[in-house]
Write a structure and sequence with these properties.
- There is one protein chain.
- By secondary structure, the protein is of the alpha/beta class.
- The protein is built from 17 helices and 26 strands.
- Among the domains are: 217 residues, ANL, N-terminal domain (Rossmann fold, 3-Layer(aba) Sandwich); 103 residues, ANL, C-terminal domain (GMP Synthetase, Chain A, domain 3, 2-Layer Sandwich), CATH 3.30.300.30.
- The chain has a nine-stranded mixed β-sheet, with helices on both faces. It has a four-stranded parallel β-sheet with strand order 4-3-5-6, sandwiched between helices. It has a four-stranded antiparallel β-sheet with strand order 16-17-20-21, with no helix packed on it.
- A hairpin with a 5-residue loop joins strand 20 and strand 21.
- Helix 5 crosses helix 6.
- It is globular, with a radius of gyration of 23 Å.
- The mean pLDDT is 93.
């Protein structure tokens, strides 16, 4: 590794041992110098290439040029390393939706040599505390409208105190913007090594215990130079839009870094419904859309009401794309879906195909720069058309933050994303299922055991088991099988009423998208002789 610019060495000190890293492959597309700052590459370098007066970010309140974005990023970076007193390597928890200020805060954090820890807008205080403690965050930048959970968390966690809130023009002492009038100088970017940690992206995994995946400055740029370059093929005149949050690596790529790498513009909107997204594409003449299969299924019947002639590419990821949804979207829009599989651990998509390369029923082929194979339990390569575990490696890969699960994700130099696949004779990869207890609903990853833990804390619940069940609209939904304590069903007025109580309780305790949309009451749950819950038997039902 190259000489680090980090004065706070926490991130580098808590990388897994080199023996536990996957093998990283050299690629002609990802040859980078020893010293590189991802924010400089994405922003300042593009201004030097002549994009300064072009539009960089758009929302319904207006638009800003690349030069205006750079000035805002520099102001925020000055605040981070001035009034907030941060030094390179410190971690900054970012909390916000798809808004230009959230994008600017992320870029400023990286430019200053700090480590971005972006969090999903729907997370509750308990989840934010877990992340803050795991990453040992030193500061918080939060959208004012998401302040409530930070304030709750700050009462229990010192690391969430002293936050600055953006999109606050009140002039309050804790408003980020209140510091801007005293700042007018450009910011000198931190001279980071290409292998300094730039971000820690959290994924729940299957246990509900957050896993922090650490990615270097070079990894951020590498994700822009592989799937986009070889499959999506964006150009400077594109306007990107979509739904994945910037805190999700799918959104970080598709809604910020991919367009920036080529000088394109990004439309950042919050609170989107399928109808609102279609209206935004029409209104802003967007050309590329990123969202989950659920949205495409819901948008397809509405297309006749909107002028989408500007749209040239639609990308689906975040959950399995049913072939019926692909066909429905193609018939309605005339566009062949670009499907892809990636992971937070790999930072973005590594299997995909577009246009004439698309094959029905398959996600696609390996993105150039990556290698993938199907293996058995002993890491032996399986023959074509045999179902097994997906193994992948390339210029990016898994490095967990101080987590024993590193050895489960990486074996023999290969990353194991936890999916079962088969590959045909022509190299097309066909998704089969998740290999673990993760539930993927409308693009969200939901850990069944985490939902179980919340339900078990409710006074009415004696036992419970949580699994994903198929759903035509969302791919899967969360179903909770509950054994109620004696008398509790009657006390609450019957099963439907108690189910509603439990659903509201989960929504109020953890991110609302994790709540069980189906609650089934049982006298008992299937268990092994040693008392272990047999979730597979629940799934079979």
């Amino acid at each position: 590794m190259h000489r680090s610019a980090h004065l706070d060495t926490f991130a580098r000190d808590h990388l897994p041992s080199r023996a536990q890293w996957p093998e990283f492959l050299a690629s002609p597309d990802t040859r980078y110098p020893p010293r590189m700052n991802a924010a400089v590459e994405l922003l300042d370098a593009m201004i030097e290439r002549g994009h300064g007066d072009s539009i960089a970010l758009i929302n319904d309140d207006g638009r800003c040029t690349w030069r205006e974005l750079a000035a805002q990023v520099d102001r925020i970076a000055h605040v981070l390393t001035g009034p907030m007193g941060l030094v390179p390597g410190n971690r900054v928890l970012l909390r916000g939706g798809n808004h230009p200020m959230m994008a600017a805060c992320w870029l400023a954090t990286v430019k200053a040599g700090l480590v971005a820890v972006a969090t999903m807008p729907l997370l509750r205080a308990a989840e934010l505390i877990q992340i803050a403690d795991k990453a040992q965050v030193n500061a918080v930048l939060c959208d004012l409208k998401l302040r409530a959970e930070i304030d709750v968390g700050a009462g229990q966690c010192e690391r969430l105190r002293g936050a600055l809130f953006f999109n606050d023009g009140s002039g309050a002492a804790d408003a980020l913007e209140s510091h801007f009038p005293r700042i007018d100088a450009p910011y000198m970017a931190c001279n980071t090594a290409s292998d300094d940690v730039a971000l820690i992206a959290f994924t729940s995994g299957t246990t509900g215990q957050p896993k922090g995946t650490m990615h270097f400055h070079r990894d951020v740029i590498a994700m822009c130079d592989l799937f986009p370059r070889h499959v999506l093929k964006p150009v400077a005149t594109d306007i990107f839009c979509g739904t994945p949050p910037l805190a999700f690596t799918f959104g970080l790529g598709g809604m910020l870094c991919f367009p920036m790498r080529v000088g394109a513009a990004t439309l950042l909107l919050e609170g989107l419904t399928p109808e609102k997204l279609l209206a935004a594409i029409e209104r802003h003449r967007a050309t590329v859309v990123f969202t989950a299969p659920t949205f495409y299924r819901q948008m397809a019947p509405l297309l006749g009401r909107f002028d989408l002639k500007s749209l040239r590419a639609s990308v689906s990821a975040g959950e399995a794309l049913p072939d019926a949804t692909r066909q429905l979207w193609r018939e309605a829009s005339g566009l062949e879906m670009i499907d892809g599989i990636g992971s937070t651990e790999m930072i973005h998509i590594f299997i995909s195909s577009a246009g004439a390369e698309v094959r029905p029923g398959a996600i696609g082929k390996v993105v150039p720069g990556y290698e993938a194979r199907i293996v058995d339990e002993h890491m032996n390569t399986l023959p074509p058309n045999t179902v097994g575990k997906l193994a992948v490696r390339g210029p990016t890969g898994c490095r967990y933050l101080a987590d024993s699960r590193q050895s489960q994700y990486v074996r023999d130099g290969w990353n194991l994303p936890g999916d079962t696949f088969m590959v045909d004779e022509d190299g097309y990869f066909h998704y089969q299922a998740r290999s673990d207890d993760m539930i993927i609903s409308a693009g969200y990853n939901i850990a069944g055991p985490e939902v179980e833990a919340v339900l078990m804390a409710h006074e009415t619940v004696a036992e419970c088991g949580v699994v994903g069940v198929p759903d035509a609209e969302r791919g899967q939904i969360v179903r909770a099988y509950v054994v109620a304590r004696p008398g509790m069903i009657a006390r609450h007025g019957g099963e439907p009423a108690l189910a509603k109580v439990l659903q509201d309780y989960v929504k109020a305790t953890i991110a609302p998208y994790k709540y069980p949309r189906s609650v089934v009451f049982r006298e008992s749950l299937p268990r092994t002789e040693t008392g272990k819950l047999q979730r597979f038997r629940l799934r079979q039902e």
